[in-house]
């Protein structure tokens, strides 16, 4: 019985591996054909993957304030000056006018936030310009190529590119005006190389005598899921007669490249938007700290440590003085409203906080603000 059970379970293992392997692949069909089991081609919207919209902005209207403050408080100088300003609002230990102490901190936070907002708005304008670039996409309704914005391109669309035109998405090359089925591209936007790269039409399509017609494309493409490897592409194209043709990186036109020395090419979109290899290699806007800022954080930390030591020394001395001369009331010793005096421990704590405010110049604010504005 154990052998039978083991024998029955053995076929399930390859099945699990197969499903795991299939989960790593992507199936792409033409948007001009109805999906399997659907009678209306309009149902193809359910199988759309990512669109081609580009978004590199860091903030939204709701996330700007908390996210920007979180980034600014990575700078220890900001945390320190905000703490000192808030400490002035405690009546028992304040040494300066609370509003006056808070004004410089709010000013530097506001100016830095405005600078970050302007930079993010510049990214938004750049995204808008790129998203509204035009390209030729085959329309099922009009049965011809029409001009659409880059952001309207979907996986499975057929795109026609002309010479010196930037490629809007990762496209599988299916047709070229070159007699040998070649297409030359410039990849300077991806790897900085200005020499032209050669791309080849998928085997079986370059031998077509007539012009490629997207309406007759009924094959199914199986390829790897989106990844950031610019040097590799694996997949196959399955025809209706069961024939399979292998695909490799020489058949791909990557987003950001430019078509050169080729009059026109046609291809089907495999990856779009943030699933393209170019954008997967771009981690997007992130908070960056310069070496000067990191050094300033270290210097501020040492200054704060020195400030704490001096304030602690003063607090201990004041506490010992109050304990020793508690019965002898000094002229400058202000009693509580009920006539009682502070205990030595309470007096030491108040003295510690007061000395932190008085000696706050240990961390000079002008150099810190200059560095913060420069970064």
TrEMBL record:
Regions that span the bilayer: 76-93, 99-118, 300-321, 341-363
Composition bias type Basic residues, residue spans: 16-27
Gene Ontology BP terms: phospholipid translocation
Keywords for the protein's UniProt record, in alphabetical order: Membrane, Transmembrane, Transmembrane helix
Domain (P-type ATPase A) ranges: 142-276
SUPFAM superfamilies in the record: Calcium ATPase, transduction domain A, Calcium ATPase, transmembrane domain M
P-type ATPase N-terminal domain segment(s): 41-99
GO MF: ATPase-coupled intramembrane lipid transporter activity
Gene3D superfamilies: Calcium-transporting ATPase, cytoplasmic transduction domain A
Pfam entry (one): PhoLip_ATPase_N
One GO CC term on file: plasma membrane
Region (Disordered): 1-45
PANTHER family: PHOSPHOLIPID-TRANSPORTING ATPASE VA (PTHR24092:SF81), PROBABLE PHOSPHOLIPID-TRANSPORTING ATPASE (PTHR24092)
Protein name, per record: Putative ATPase phospholipid transporting 10A (Putative)
Organism in which the protein naturally occurs: Rhinolophus ferrumequinum
């Amino acid at each position: 019985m154990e052998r039978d059970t083991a024998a029955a379970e053995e076929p399930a293992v390859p099945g699990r591996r197969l499903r795991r392997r299939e989960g790593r692949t992507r199936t792409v069909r033409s948007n001009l054909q109805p999906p399997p089991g659907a009678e209306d081609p309009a149902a193809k919207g359910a199988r759309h993957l990512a669109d081609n919209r580009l978004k590199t902005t860091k903030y939204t209207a709701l996330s700007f304030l908390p996210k920007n403050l979180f980034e600014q408080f990575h700078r220890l100088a900001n945390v320190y000056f905000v703490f000192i300003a808030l400490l002035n609002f405690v009546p028992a230990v304040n040494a300066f006018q609370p509003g006056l102490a808070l004004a410089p901190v709010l000013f530097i936070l506001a100016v830095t936030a405005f600078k970050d907002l302007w930079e993010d708005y510049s990214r938004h304008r750049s995204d808008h310009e790129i998203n509204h670039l035009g390209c030729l996409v085959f329309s099922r309704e009009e049965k011809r190529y029409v001009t659409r914005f880059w952001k309207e391109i979907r996986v499975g669309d057929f795109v026609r590119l002309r010479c010196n035109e930037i490629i809007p998405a990762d496209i599988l090359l299916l047709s070229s005006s070159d007699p040998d089925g070649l297409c030359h591209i410039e990849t300077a936007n991806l790897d900085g190389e200005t020499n032209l790269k050669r791309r080849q039409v998928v085997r079986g399509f370059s031998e077509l005598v007539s012009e490629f017609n997207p309406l007759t494309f009924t094959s199914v493409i199986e390829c790897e899921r989106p990844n950031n490897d610019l040097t590799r592409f694996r997949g196959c194209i399955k025809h209706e007669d069961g024939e399979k043709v292998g695909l490799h990186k020489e058949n791909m036109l990557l987003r950001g490249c430019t078509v050169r020395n080729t009059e026109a090419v046609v291809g089907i979109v495999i990856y779009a938007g943030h699933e393209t290899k170019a954008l997967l290699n771009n981690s997007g806007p992130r908070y960056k700290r310069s070496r000067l800022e990191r050094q300033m954080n270290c210097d501020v930390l040492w200054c704060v440590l020195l400030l704490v030591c001096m304030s602690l020394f003063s607090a201990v001395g004041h506490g010992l003085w109050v304990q020793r001369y508690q019965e002898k009331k000094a002229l400058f010793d202000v009693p509580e409203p009920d006539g009682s005096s502070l205990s030595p421990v309470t007096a030491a704590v108040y003295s510690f906080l007061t000395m932190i405010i008085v000696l706050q110049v240990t961390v000079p604010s002008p150099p810190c603000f200059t560095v913060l504005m420069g970064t």
